[in-house]
């Protein structure tokens, strides 16, 4: 089997082939499904291994003291051999995972082969395909909880034990210093307990994430700003507890804790930060300093962890194992949400590369999961299968037909409904260099009306005649959603450039059919009507925001409003869901802002699927959250969007005003005319591509990825779990 190991002397990381552990009595053999990288603890260990011998000594003075004692007892030569041997050995990584029981040892009767369990321990829940786990270091995963979420069990237990040590009560106010993985979980646990939370972290992205997950206010560790926020929430008394979830060598966290704590408040150390307590400050307030020992009572006790001797519940209510089970229960009941914390999921075979990217800073993450191959998939996760992102195969690509430079671009419209006549045709009618050749509709009267209003040369109900007309350069498909994919397929096979309104397809089979037409014909001249990315105001705001280096967070609120009774949008059995019809707009906009395609989709809905929350994950740790609501007030703006990254923020207010905050602040002037959502600019670049034979405005691969992500929303709602977007090779 494979296991992640590190040589502490050289710092080298390896994915090593090692023997399968035996299934000893008092425990179970577990095949890993997902294991979690603790980006704080583990990266600290990885970084220490890369230091010089002097650097290692400075970082671990406790070990240096042991070495000096050994020299005094055993002599220099023997101590040197012992230390060198220990350093030049493989050490394991990992301590939090979820997997399937593969074998049960004697004395175990609470789980069976095939059960899903969460496992703990830096000797038993390693980044390895198989682990032997003693009884008190595993807990059964509740039904319905996804394995990728259950993998957070151990880290969640650390946060839970820290909150227990703080003895918080309903109505308390707490300060959490450090909003990494542990800090984010502490924020959620406190919020679920009725505690108002202030968070502190130098990373604005983590602050914004903590606020989304329930914190009342978050910001940088600037004492004056933190004191002001605390004073507002506490009436000037100070916080009841401070939770130190930060690392590093700065003494600022413990100094800040003293400044904002109330008289006789509690300071709980969960992380590993410097603790040079300012005596006067802690003495004058009589602050109660407490340490939280890892997962809970039982930790570091070999009789509890290895021999399975439990502590009586009447004397020790919350042990390691009970904390683990409790956190899993909170996850299963939705009281804690770990999915927004998952910045990246990597295949286990890519473990070494993933650690290196984390160490180098190329991958900025709160939480990273390893996904293991083999039969570790569990029914709880199998309910939401991956949605395929089909590969684009162009076959023998057919070049765009040569056209005289002075010849007009001849267009045909399939459909002449409300959107076509209000948003597209007004920009095309009587336009220089464009000829509206033919309009095709299913009813003769609608075709005649479109011909009269916009000046089409011909009106017909015969689509085949249009597709067979060699003089027509491009076809616009603006019919009802259920016909988009088939009409697009036919037009591509006829050699036409195609502009199809969203959605491109309502099913994976329809999407595959469109791409089969591309491969068969060699014609990839396709554009989907994702116009937001062409809106002048949004493009200007993106330019002002500048280049991005770190992960970004996008928040997109869409106040879609109620549909009128009888609208064909409500015919979900034939026309797909409302989000399937419109959601591609917002996914495409987020992907354009982040310059990437999504890798997973997680969707939640209110009863009746009226309001949706869609979370998209992107490579490099970026996320986008789309709130698609139909129950909002009619007077509220339809679309508001925020992008936060690298200490900068962009805001778009319904295509009327935009602003960018950074070193300098830029605010657009209020537009004097109606909102411009980019339809005209999109048509400009599409017509230019048709006229010149140049590339389409949006790469076909991006159109396919956005369509697959839109389809994945429904798959996630059905399965109740995140859906991976599996890209075909």
Automatic annotation (TrEMBL):
Q: Has keyword Nucleus?
A: no
* Keywords recorded for this protein, A-Z: Metal-binding, Oxidoreductase, Zinc
Q: Per its UniProt record, what InterPro entries does this chain match?
A: ADH-like_C, Gfo/Idh/MocA-like_OxRdtase_N, GroES-like_sf, NAD(P)-bd_dom_sf
Q: Which residue numbers delimit the Gfo/Idh/MocA-like oxidoreductase N-terminal domain?
A: 410-530
Cofactor names from the entry are: Zn(2+)
**Does Oxidoreductase appear among the keywords?**
yes
**Residue ranges of the Alcohol dehydrogenase-like C-terminal domain?**
182-300
Query: The organism sits in which domain of life?
Result: Bacteria
What protein family is recorded? Belongs to the zinc-containing alcohol dehydrogenase family.
- Name this protein carries in UniProt: Bi-domain-containing oxidoreductase
The source organism is Streptomyces gossypii
